Each structure stands twice: as C-alpha cells, then as structure tokens.
Amino acid sequence: MTMESEVTNHAVVVRDAYKRYTRQAVVLKGLNMTVEKGTIYGFLGPSGCGKTTLLSCIVGRTTLDAGEIVLSVNSKSDIGYMPQELALNKEFSIKETMSYYGMLYGMTKEELVKRKAEMYSFLDLPNENSTIDEISGGQQRRVSLSVALLHNPELLILDEPTVGVDPLLSHCIWQHLLTLSTVHGKTIIITTHYIEDAKHAHRIGLMRAGTILAESDPKQMLTSYNCDTLEQVFLYLSHKQESGISYEAEQQEMKNYPNPTKKPVAPIKNRMDICPVHIYSHIWKNIYWLKRNKPILAFLLTLPIVISALFVLTIGRDPLGLKLGVVNEELPDGIDVCNRFAANLTCSLEYPMSCKFLDTLEKKQINLIGYRDHESARRGVERNHVWGYLYFSRNYTEALFERIISNLRASDESLNTSELKIWMDMSNQYIGNLLKRDMYFGYLSFLEHVYKTCDWPPEAATVPITYEDAVYGSNTPSFTDFAVPAVIQLSEFYLPMLFTVGAILMEKREGLLERSFISGMTLPEIMVGHAIVNFVILSLQTLFMWVVLFIIFDNVFNGSLLLAILLLYLVGFSGMCYGYFVSAICDTDQAATYMGLGSFFPLAMLSGMVWPFEGMHYLLRAIGWCLPLTLTTDAFRSISSRSWGLNHPAVYAGFLSAIGWSLFFSLATYAIIKLKNGLRTKS
Ligand SMILES: Nc1ncnc2c1ncn2[C@@H]1O[C@H](COP(=O)(O)OP(=O)(O)OP(=O)(O)O)[C@@H](O)[C@H]1O
C-alpha cells in the first residue's frame, strides 16, 4: 500500500522517521505511527524521548532527516496546534489574542464572536480584558488551547494541553475532545505526561528511545500485556527494549543512520503567495503591542527629537567665555586701565595699542585675566585657570607704529618688541585651535581698524586673499553643517533596526513567530507587515527630526526635499533589513545589543561621519567606502548643501548603496534562516 492510499483512511501517517539534532543526539530512529481520522491519539513517553520533535515535524516546524509524513489535510489553517511552551504574547489581553488569531485564520467577525463564546463556556476562561501576564499558569494554558481550537480545525495537535490544569477541568477538556472527535470527526493527537489520562484516547502510542514501542487501543493494550495500568505496560516494554539494546547495536545503528540524497519535504508545503489578510493581522498585532507598550512607542518617537535637539544644542557651536591670561608690560597698573583711554586717541602713541587688540578679543567673548609677570601667568595655565597667555612688551605701541610706518626699514628691536608672544595650552585641540583662530582674525581686524583710524589704506593691513561667494555652502561653514547629514543618516539607519530587532527577537524568543508560522503565516508576510508598521513609525521619526534640524534650528538644506526624503526612507529600509539580519543571527537580546553596539561605532567612524574621509588610513578608506552609510551620507550632503540631483554620481551612488545593502541584508537573512532551519531560538 502506498503512503497516499494509506492516508485516505488515516489522518496522519509517519513512516521510517529519522531525526537527529547532532551526530550523537538521535531523537527519532525509524519511527512509524498511524493516526486514524476522527480519533484521539494519545502519545506517551518519558521526558526527552522526542514527542515534541515528532509533532514539530508533523506541523512543519522542522523537517525529518529521512522518512515520510503524510497528512490528510493540505493547508496549515486546517491544523490547530498548541505548543508545549505558552507561545502567546503576555502583554496582550485574551480578547486581543483571540482577535489576532481570528484575523490570521481569516474568520469573519460573527464567526469569531460565536467561537469565542464557545471557548469561554467550555474552557472557563477569565475576563477577556485580562492580559495573559495577569492570569494563572493554568488559565494561560487554557487560552493557548482555545487559540488552537478557535478556527475549528480538522486536525488538532496538542502538546501537553492538561499540564497545570486542575483535575476537574482536565476531565472537561478530555470530554470536549472526545465530542470533537466522535461527533465532529476531528482528529486529535495529544501528548501527555499523565499516562493514566491517556486511557480516554481511542488509540495510544508508547514512545521511547526514538521509536514507538506499541500502538493500539488502551484496553486492548492492557489485555495484550496482561497489565492493570498503562504505566505497567510502559515499564514492561521499556525493560524489554533496554535489554535488547547493546552498546555495539547502538554504534551500528549510528553507522546505519540514513542519509538520503533528497531530504524529506515538510508534509504541508509553504505557500508562495502573499495573503493580505495575514499582513493585515500582523499589522494589528504590532498595533496591539504598541498600544500595550506606550512607553516604548513614546521612546521611539521622542528619541529622534532628543537626538537632533541635543546634537544641535551641544555640538558644533563655538565655545564661549574661554579664559586667556595677559601679561602686559605696557600697562603696569593692569589691563583694566584700558577703559581710561579715550577711543578717539587710537592713532596716537598716547593710546596703548595692546588695549585695542584686547578689546577685539573681548568682543569675541574671550575672558581676559591680567597677570603681573610670566611666572604667575604660566602658573595660571598650569592650574587650568586660563588656556594660555599673551605677552605685550613695554614699548609695544611705539614698536608697532615703527614696524608699520618704517616697514622694510624697521629695526630688529622694533620688529621683536612689536611681536605679540603667546603661550598656549594645546592639550585640547579644539579649544586651542579655536583660540588661535580668534586671535589671528582678531589681530587682522585690529590692524585694519588701526589703519583706518590713522587714514592709511586698510587694504594694506589685510592678507591679499579674497574669498568670493562660495560656490556651494557658506564661507564660514560650521561643524554642524558637516555633521547634520551624519546624525540624520545614523538615526534613520539605527532607529528602524532597533524597532525591528526588538519586535522580532521578542516574537522569536516567546515562540510567537513559530506559532504564527504554524498557523499559516509566511516569513514574507511577516516582513511586509512589519515593514508597513516600521514605515509609519519611520515617517514620524523623520518628520520630527526634520522639523528640529531644518525648521526649528534652520540648518542648511538647499536641495530637493523629495530626493532627500526618498534617500532617508531607503536608508531606513536598509536599517530595517539589518534589523532582520541581526534578529536572524542572534537568539538573545544580549547578543543583539552587542551586535548593534559593536556595529555602531565602527560604522560611525569608518563612514567619514566624525572626521573627513580623506584623513583616514588608506586601507580603512577602502573599507569605509563599502559600508552602508558612507555613500548615503555623502549623497545627503550633496543634496542638502550642493542641491545636486539624482543624475549626479555622488547622489545616485548613495541610492544604489542603500538599495544594494538592503538586498545584501535580505539575502544574508534568508541564508541564515535556511541554515538555522527557521527563525527560532535554539530551545
Ligand atoms: N533544537 C534542538 N537542538 C538540539 N537538541 C534538541 C533540540 N530540541 C530538542 N532537542 C533534544 O531532543 C530530545 C527530544 O526533545 P523533545 O523536546 O522532542 O522531547 P519530549 O519528548 O517532547 O520531551 P518533554 O516531554 O520533556 O517535552 C531531547 O534530548 C532534547 O534535548
């Protein structure tokens, strides 16, 4: 008889099933099992004998290494599966849980209301607004059972449904299952630890060490083995099996483990089409989750605002109120005496020129602190009171005038005396360079002022270089202009990644993804559903960042808004794909956190976000060009400050990079899922 013909009379047929997780851990060893239609099959065996593994193969959670499983049903929606673990979202209410699965099974509102009422009366479920987290363990198991029964499936596969349920309710459940099979013709496979419970089943299979020891009607089994209880039958058969297994036989079995060239396929093939109802239900599931986790939603929406506001308010602005020491031998009574000199004397020797220069520095909001001599000023630097000090010689003003007026004929002494000497604390590169810049430009404007007040041509005081209007950007660009594209790109990449990893890992860890897959959902449907929710959140995040960076703080943006937004969406999409990739690789939040953080810093540094790319080691530059945010950041800069369009290589390279990385992460995720045989944790 062929398997196909066997299945016309039977609901489940398993033949010569082999399965192992590692070379040594063989779980199924040529197992055979037959379940007749419209019956209850009690599946018994000690913990760890492979019951769950076999059920997983039947529902298509995992595949056999060899052998065959044929089912009478041909769609996942005809199966109701209750896994051993809870596999329900604990934050959802019972009502939300049922609504989600109702939507997933394509039930109409009326059907759902009717079935829900039946479940409530038979399983004595608590208030529908209670969250799964709030109810007892036994009540949680009952909700899980009601989810498996909700869509009235043809084949029910229940892994330990009566664990944690009181004897009275357990009896009720058995009675209901019996009605389902005998009256409604449903087939039920049920595993249980309570061997005596299984006597209610029409047929039982005793499993041990990867095979079925015996399979028959419970009464017939007791008679055949002349035992009073099923427990005695099981012990008798176990002893018999034990005495028949020698070490050599086990080794031989291991050697003979079948390795067919063609791997067995799952009993129900995965659908290739995309079902809008499934996507819709996944979107609702995300909405329920966000509703239950308002602080997380608030965090996701306020984080971009906080990042952009903090960035603009803290980074790129010139430090104010920096302190500089002054040793001024021109003014023995201290620098405060400068106020006593009339400004209209600025072209006379009566007016100390050092005062004029110090006045220029004060206008640049530099705090000047007078010191008596070099020693005290140096001590001031060493004690971190000032960032450096300036020294003016006693005859500074005369020497400066002589230097200007005599120019080429000025004496060495006047050249030396008119020189302003500065000692700086350069341990802080930014502050040191900013003070140097202020002193340099301050000196130029001071000189120009002197020339003007003395009626000398001011052009003679300036450096003969003129910066005309910049072709792109401003002649006085700020660090903020450089860094805004980097901040927005990093946020657009990492925020969707954060949401994706959080959502997928939680579903994976709790077994929710598995349950959705077994209920007929496919990976592409989950990804599309998640992408739609992510797209809405990303749109809000982008809007908020845009308002803060470009509207409230008025950072430079001169290009096409449409192009920039499109680029940001693509970057967000590649971030989401990276999130899928991390969720596929990592099983725990901890591993995902390490991976996220571990990639953040190299990505930020190697993408030329913190420092111009051209300053990088040439080998790292080669790596940097290949990273997901390098070309996209460059493209955003080109759009925002140069108004370049999509026809410019710098812009379309960014678009191509985002598309390429999205493809790469998607393919890599697919490969990992294939390699790990599904998107599930190891347990
Ligand atoms: N993903 C996995 N990787 C490696 N080993 C596994 C995996 N899943 C299960 N096993 C091992 O396979 C064996 C059978 O496990 P399974 O969960 O099928 O047993 P079970 O009969 O359902 O046990 P229980 O009644 O305690 O649930 C166990 O030894 C288990 O450690």
TrEMBL record:
Residues 12-234 form the ABC transporter domain. SUPFAM superfamilies: P-loop containing nucleoside triphosphate hydrolases. Pfam families: ABC2_membrane_3, ABC_tran. The keyword Thylakoid does not apply. It is found in: Membrane. GO terms for molecular function: ABC-type transporter activity; ATP binding; ATP hydrolysis activity. It is a multi-pass membrane protein. This is ABC transporter domain-containing protein. GO terms for cellular component: membrane.
